[in-house]
Amino acid sequence: MIQKFKLLYFLFLLVAIFSCKSEEDKRVERTVARNAVIDSTLTVFKQKLLKVQIDSVFAKTQFNGNISVLQDGKILYQKENGFEDFKDKTKLDSSSVFAIGSVSKQFTAVLILLQEEEGKLSTEDKVSKYLTEFQPRQFENIKIKELLNHTSGISDFGNGLLSKPGQEFNYSNKGFYYLGKIIEKVSGKSYDENAMDLFRKVEMKSSSTANLFKGAHFASAYIRNSNNYFKVENMPKRLSAKEISVPAGGILSTVNDLHLWNNALFKGDILKPSSLKKLREKSADRNHQILGKMNYGFGLMMNVGKPESYFHTGYVKGSPSLNMYYPETNTSVVILSNIADESKGKNAVFYPHKEVKKATDWVENAVVEFRKEMLITSLSE
C-alpha cells in the first residue's frame, strides 16, 4: 500500500512538473512570437525609411557609386548608379571592385592583433624592437598601439614628431605603413600574403590588395565630374607606393565583401573577445574634418553618443568611401564611389557619405527606441 502511494505521489510530481514546464514553454513561445512580429514590423519600417532617405541622396547628388545596407544578412537597401568606366559606359553593379582608401586600416589593425594572439608581438611593445627606423632617440619610445590609434606623433610630411608619443591624435598614413612592415617582420610573409589569408578566412572572394589585383569589374577612379572627367592613371597599382601604401590605403573590395567583413569581425568570428575589445575600445579622440568629433580605437572610428557605431572613411584620389556597422541591430552600411570633384573640397566630395551616415544614424536611433517602446507596451498588455 505504501509503495502504491509512493508511486502515485511520484506520478503526481511528474504531472505537476510537466504541467509547469508546459505553461513556461507557452509563455516563452508567446514572447518569441511577439518579438518576431515586432522585429518584422520594424524591419519593414526601417526599409521604408532608408529608401526615402538614401534615394534622396542619390537624387540630390547624382551619386556615382554603390550604397548597400544589410541587417542580419538581409538586404534592407541596395542601389548602384553610374559607371565603372566612364569612357566605355560600363555600369556599376554589386560586383564592382573599388579602392577603399583608409577603410584598409582596420584590416591592418586586425592583422596586428592576430599576430598578438599568436604571441609574435604585443601592442604594448616599442616599435624599435622590430624596426630599425624607430631606433633613433626621438622615435625609440613609440609603441605599436600608438601607431594603431594615431597618437605616435609621426608626421606624414617630414621626419620629426608632431607631438610626444601617446599624447595627441595626429592622423598618420605613415604609421600604418610601418605597421605593415611589422606584420611582415613577425609573420615571415608579405603584407599581401597576410591580407589574402584574411580575405580567404572571411570568404571575401572579390577583395585584393593593389599589388595583387588581377580581377575584372574594377571601378576605375576619376576626378572632376561625370560630364568632364579625368581618369586617375596607374590604378590600382599606384596605391602600393610608399606615399599611400597598401596597409594604410591600398585594399580593394566590394559592397558585398565588406558586409561579410563587418559581420565576421563584429560578431567575433575573426578575433578573440579580448582582441576585439582592444580594436573597438576608445583610446583616442578625433576631430574629423567632415564628420566632426568622434572616438577612435585601433583603425576604427566610433560615435561619441548614440547610436553605437563603428566606422571609417576612406579616400584615395577619385575614390571616397565609408564603411559602418551598428552592433545593436547587426546592421552593416557600405558606401563606395569612384569619382570625386576635388576642386570643390573634401566636404563636397563626402557630402553624400555624410548625408547617408546622418540618415542611418537617425533611423538606427528611431528603430531601437521604437522597439523598446513596443516591447514595454506588449508586456503591459
What would you note in describing this structure?
The protein has helices at residues 2-61, 105-117, 144-148, 173-187, 191-202, 246-249, 255-266, 273-280, 346-349, 351-380; strands at 65-71, 74-81, 83-85, 90-91, 98-99, 208-209, 222-225, 228-231, 251-253, 284-288, 292-296, 301-302, 310-316, 319-326, 331-337, 339-340. Helix 1 runs antiparallel to helix 10 (351-380) and helix 2 packs parallel to helix 4. It has 381 residues and is an alpha+beta fold. The chain is globular. The protein contains ten helices and 16 strands. 43% of the residues lie in helices and 19% in strands.
Quick structural summary:
This protein is an alpha+beta fold and 381 residues long. The chain has ten helices and 16 strands.
List keywords for this structure.
381 residues, alpha+beta, 8-stranded antiparallel β-sheet, 3-stranded antiparallel β-sheet, 16 strands
> Percent of residues in beta strands?
15-25%
Helix-strand pattern: HEEEEEHHHHEEEHEHHEEEEEEEHH
What is the SS-derived class?
alpha+beta
| Count of DSSP H/I helices | 10
Which consecutive residue ranges, at least 5 long each, have pLDDT under 50?
Answer: none
Rough shape? Answer: globular
Report strand order across the widest sheet: 2-1-15-14-13-12-11-10
Major sheet attributes: 8 strands, antiparallel
Strand tally is 16
Radius of gyration (CA) equals: 25 Å
Query: What separation lies between the terminal Cα atoms?
Result: 49 Å
Provide mean pLDDT, rounded.
92
- Helix share bin: 40-55%
Task: Outline the secondary-structure elements.
Layout: H1 2-61, E1 65-71, E2 74-81, E3 83-85, E4 90-91, E5 98-99, H2 105-117, H3 144-148, H4 173-187, H5 191-202, E6 208-209, E7 222-225, E8 228-231, H6 246-249, E9 251-253, H7 255-266, H8 273-280, E10 284-288, E11 292-296, E12 301-302, E13 310-316, E14 319-326, E15 331-337, E16 339-340, H9 346-349, H10 351-380
Parallel strand pairs: 7-16
Antiparallel strand pairs: 1-2, 1-15, 3-4, 5-9, 6-9, 7-8, 10-11, 11-12, 12-13, 13-14, 14-15
Helix pairs in contact: 1-10, 2-4
